[in-house]
Amino acid sequence: KPLQTAVRLVLDEAWHTYWKNPGEGGMEISVKWELPEGWTAGELEQPVPKRFMTGDLPGFGYEGTVVFPVTFTAPAGFSGEAKLKGKVSWLTCNDDSCIPGNAELELALTAGSPAPTKEAPLIAAALEKIPQEEKGAVLKVDEKEKSLVLTVSGVDLAERSEVFPATPQVVDAGAEFNFSKDGEKWTAEVAKSEYAGSPVKELALVVAGKGGTNPGVVEWKKD
After folding, report:
1. Residue 11 DSSP one-character state
2. Per residue in 32-61, pLDDT tens?
3. Is 23 left (phi over 0), alpha (psi -120 to 50) or beta?
4. What is d(CA 141, CA 151) in angstroms, rounded to the nearest whole number?
């Protein structure tokens, strides 16, 4: 059966680390697993980020304590003990410098009836911050020379006023998403990243309420 756990990263005050779209500069957290035969690991899931500046560079990521949920699945007939190992790498920055970090983690497991640990509430709270597919929502992208016109339907952006570009190097990291309502649709024009390919082929947006509540994902791919 799947086993839900997480990687917790605690950052010193005034330091931040980065989201899957780090913005200008930065580096996404990554992990390389060393698992027993038959075990599998899911994606290291990332909660709704914050916006910040590193010097003059806009970015997306996390401050304070951040929890990244991950699901492991044991092989059929697992018995005895298993040790799950992972090498985690990240980058932390403040206004003056950036420092790479890494850690080797190990989780020892024993087969038996499942039971929650003392960390279960922490992990459950983290899972609520992971954006899920916004069913019924549609994103359309019209490309101009230096900007993108975004049209979203099927989700109320009045209640999901925080918007982040999850696809790197498509939307300018410093762009503001000022959506206006037109009937049942919401439209905004944002600056295109100078690193964006032409034509733009895909874009995912994370939408959330204040403080990252009720997060969802809307996606577009060019036909």
Report:
1. P
2. 999 999 999 999 999 999 999 998 999 999
3. left
4. 7
